[in-house]
Fold this protein.
Amino acid sequence: MSDEAVWMKWIEDGTVTTPLGFKCGAVYAGLKTPGPGKLDVGLLLADVPCSAAGVFTTNKVAAAPVVLSRERVRGGAARGIVFNAGNANAATGEQGMQRARQMAEVAGAKFGVSPEELLVASTGVIGVPLPIDRFEEGMGRLTIRADGGHDAAQCIITTDTRRKETAVEVAVEGGSFKIGAIAKGAGMIHPNMATMFCFVTTDAAVEPGFLNTALRRSVDLSFNMISIDGDMSTNDTAVVFASGMAGLPRIEAGSQAAERFQATLTEVCIRMAKAIAADGEGATKLIEVRVDGAESEDDARRAARSVAASNLLKAAVYGGDPNWGRIACAAGYSGANLVESKLDITIAGFPTLLQGKVLPFDARAASSALMQSKVTILVNLNLGKGSATAWGCDLTEEYVVINSKYTT
Amino acid sequence: MSDEAVWMKWIEDGTVTTPLGFKCGAVYAGLKTPGPGKLDVGLLLADVPCSAAGVFTTNKVAAAPVVLSRERVRGGAARGIVFNAGNANAATGEQGMQRARQMAEVAGAKFGVSPEELLVASTGVIGVPLPIDRFEEGMGRLTIRADGGHDAAQCIITTDTRRKETAVEVAVEGGSFKIGAIAKGAGMIHPNMATMFCFVTTDAAVEPGFLNTALRRSVDLSFNMISIDGDMSTNDTAVVFASGMAGLPRIEAGSQAAERFQATLTEVCIRMAKAIAADGEGATKLIEVRVDGAESEDDARRAARSVAASNLLKAAVYGGDPNWGRIACAAGYSGANLVESKLDITIAGFPTLLQGKVLPFDARAASSALMQSKVTILVNLNLGKGSATAWGCDLTEEYVVINSKYTT
């Protein structure tokens, strides 16, 4: 966003409790394997009832907390979310549903809110009953604080190597509001196969219908661009809570404030999505794939995701191999319309294909450019005006090591 | 096929020149990097005109030899195929088309057949002009022999670790015919991103329309089941030539001979597909995924392929981790209809999920079972009668090592 400086400002060390009216806490309750600084049971709670919205996995095997939260947020209101890592409470049947409800009951009883106002999110091993006694013991010790966002961010991560959190301030007529977020990475860079969480808060007052639409649009441009279409884990959850504590008029669709809210929410989600991509299991680099000139935005999205998801390209980027043929190939099978004789490809700043013709380039210099921590790939289909950006990471030996020994 | 013994017999050491009327040869012409026993330019030629059919990549970036061969085989007749490894002649523009035509011209001139009767196939690096002078020099030295199939099988492989070839004899009324084949593996187990070849010969006489239908059906049940739907490399090529030299009546659709031909062609293609899957880059194991009880065959195919293609599952199988949750997850996002409370999963002989309920199983014994060279995964959706089988391989550190250093 070129004019972000005018009305949008990232807040240093910002997190999900940076907007007014939110508190968080987390404890270690023995759900993750033990380790220094580990946290695995947490709560994000608003001081007041919030308008709320959620986007969840489309996987037909949806975890119990997803089923519960999807139902509870449908009315457009919620007060917070209780969460754990170390156990996904997925493929756990009716007992899993009971335990998801119990999580909200235990937290609601302790903090004096109705359990129906609490959403639930779980991540970790699939198919193992959630140890509800440990959760209860942990929640009994949990305290929430207005600066608890960092702990919450720490709590939700699993194979992530670092916390993912941000906050931003947005100037609007009559004042400003804030948006904050924490996220947990997919173990893999494709959320299709491992869990992605993003919990967003804002102290703006937002009309629930607009909040729902806005979240869906932002997720489409962010988390869905580090994924294969419709491919999500059993537990993927993106939720937003709006406390209204900034004291500004309620944001309704169609206003300038709504536009700024939408744009900023998208920026926040993209920032989290990129953080997830860059921290993919075993990853050493963020790959950004921008596709222009597609016949439609849908085509651009398809081509961008296809390239970003290609194992062969991801391995090539890892090895510093400017293998643009794999980019052409992945765009070619993406389903997007493509005419080879019009295709342009630029990799890490090196134009390699122009109108379908191979350009000479300094392979050694391109290889060096590929060893940076961020690699940008530009594809122009030269067929129309559709554009999209997708993100991925490189594929490394370490990814295989991590994922060949997860449950056992 | 339970009754295969009755009329179908695999031929020991069989290959593409085992059926009557076919000769092959191959030489090293400097297209691959040098090495002992390397061959990179070859020819399969029939003694007589053949009926023929081909199935090619659906990638919008199709290599020049694919464009040429697709056009030439359309009429249902061809005499042979000239091929090379080490250069894919893909993304090479009009010059690439000229060189593909030249390959057929050079071979046709030398062996006294019309170049229009020759198909062409190339595999290797994308986007580099094919060194036609080297090809020409090599073809000048090439001789073909009735026992040349093994050399042809050796010639087409790239990162494959072993030749892929087979032949089978089929008894029909009045005698018998043979089907032979050679194949080259996808570098990756998904043909979506690396090249797959399968060249099939038969000495049956086969009506071209039926031959075309039969090949498409067989490819659907074999090579398309080690792939993601519609996702193929720039160069994928499956062709069949029928010489009629067995001296039997021509096979037309609807006859018993046609049924046996179809069934056997499918067996041959599946054998080659499994050989490709088992020899995926860095692979140590073949994974077979059978899905039953789907609402339709399409649903079964989707679910089977989705499981076989899951990076997380492939890594788990590599590590001997009986992580059935990843199977449920991959089936869940496959697009196939699925009801969690009806789902059965058996992994390497260990039932782990029955009607959606987790079964206790000996994880240590299951882990040992996963260390075999073939791992079978059974999924029953318990919703209908659709069945399908897909094949894949495990994902290893070696895969990453191979693919991070291909062009440079």
Notes: Residues 4-278 of chain B form a domain with the L-amino peptidase D-ALA esterase/amidase fold (CATH 3.60.70.12). Residues 150 and 392 of chain B are 25 Å apart (CA to CA). Confidence is low (pLDDT under 50) at residues 189-193 of chain B.
